[in-house]
Amino acid sequence: MKKQPEITEKTRKRFVDAFWELAKEKPIRKIAVNELTRRAGYNRSTFYEYFADTDDLLSYAEQDVLEEIRQTIVRTLPQDDTSGNLFQSDLFPRVFAAMNEKMYILMGPNGDPGFLPLVKAELIPLVLPHIPISTDNPDFDYLISFVSSSMFGLLQKWNEWGKNISTEEFSKLMQTLMLHGLSAYITEIDSRTP
Across the chain, what does the average pLDDT equal? Predict the structure, then answer.
């Protein structure tokens, strides 16, 4: 007898919800099937009907988060504007406001080190037409790596520090750094610096 799709989705969601609850309490890689089943209210055999193992569940949960991020960016980006002024737009405050705790869990010290490359692979093609860096630039790959690593590093730190500044202040900080670098914050440059 085949299960009804609503029941199947509800059961899968209970496992995913249990996963996120546990991920708030402990490192993702230390979450065990028996903890998931106990938290979700099912037995081990039910878990294995839906997921091959905890890595399979993690992958499923990550794909959900990636889809949320992708949808937020698609809704937020101006589809007809490729002027390359992304750093001067209101995209960042809107995307950061939409990012939820799940993304920060995955990007945090107890998260999945493999998640950030997935995020970059998903986001870079979406925002590339809106970034003021020419794809003809011989250093393009380095520049994109710098921009994406800097942005996500700042996001991780902002979250670690409890989002101690507003989304607007954080966005302004990021925009200033991306457009003007550290020089916008340095009042004196050491004469010994080349």
Answer: 83
Token pair of 24 as six digits: 């708030």
The whole-angstrom distance between residue 184's C-alpha and the CA centroid of its chain comes to 27
84: left (phi over 0), alpha (psi -120 to 50) or beta: left
Contact criterion met (CB below 8 Å) for 64 and 155: no
pLDDT in tens, 18-77: 999 999 999 999 999 999 999 999 999 999 999 999 999 999 999 999 998 888 877 777
Q: How far is CA 33 from CA 1, 43, 154, in A?
A: 26, 9, 33
Q: Which is nearest to 60 in space by CA: 3, 11, 124?
A: 11
Closest CA to 133 of 144, 123, 124: 144
Q: Tell me the one-letter amino acid at 46.
A: T
Q: Which residue has the higher pLDDT, 134 or 111?
A: 111
This prediction has a pTM of 0.78
Q: At a CB cut-off of 8 Å and minimum separation 6, what does 165 contact?
A: 158, 173
Residues 1-6: what's their mean pLDDT? 62
Position 138 pLDDT exceeds 80:
yes
